[in-house]
Amino acid sequence: MSHEMRFCPSCATPLQWRSQQEDSGMKARLRCPACDWTHWGNPTPVLAAVVENDAEQVLLARNALWQEGMFGLITGFMEAGESPEAGICREVLEETGLRVKALRILGSWEFLRMNQVLIAYHVRVEGEVRLSPELVEYQWKSAQEARCWPSGTGYALAHWIRSKGLEPQFGAFRPNQSPEPDPAKWPPQYWAEDGRFMLPPAV
Ligand SMILES: [Zn+2]
């Protein structure tokens, strides 16, 4: 369900679309006519993890809301008061029961439809998988077996596969979606595997 901002969160006056001079010129936004509060509508940061085990397999999980056969990365919202690194360690632990022992950044991508920005990490983990109720099943896939999809989390997975010296294979994540990757969103450089990992912060 998506919600629309209708009232000023500061003084409860109904918001209005108003144009005002900003650094980039005149800009229409929802603004409060009483106290001048502005609804900026900035994107929400979402964290994602390519979770790798000691057998060099990636964990792909199915959300309870997704149809059968649809698997993706571990994702979650960044919370107030935490760094993105601490946030992804928390999400991986909460959703899979696995402890992150090292991580590195893979990149960031936009998700315009949901007004989100994705920040993706590659994490190495230890422990046994215990799924949270929001996930219903999971699978471990090797870099050869894993199929990517043309959106932010899929491009993050493609980076990980390339770091194994393999060419990622793209398939459609959802029916009717083009399986063609967008090169502009998937810079095809190789990763130097060593030296990019760091110890995770405590969560
Ligand atoms: Zn107001």
From TrEMBL:
Gene3D superfamilies: Nucleoside Triphosphate Pyrophosphohydrolase. InterPro entries: NUDIX_hydrolase-like_dom_sf (IPR015797), NUDIX_hydrolase_CS (IPR020084), NUDIX_hydrolase_dom (IPR000086), Nudix_N (IPR029401). Keywords: Hydrolase. GO terms for molecular function: hydrolase activity. Its cofactor is Mg(2+). Residues 41-163 form the Nudix hydrolase domain. SUPFAM superfamilies: Nudix. This is ADP-ribose pyrophosphatase. It comes from Comamonas kerstersii.
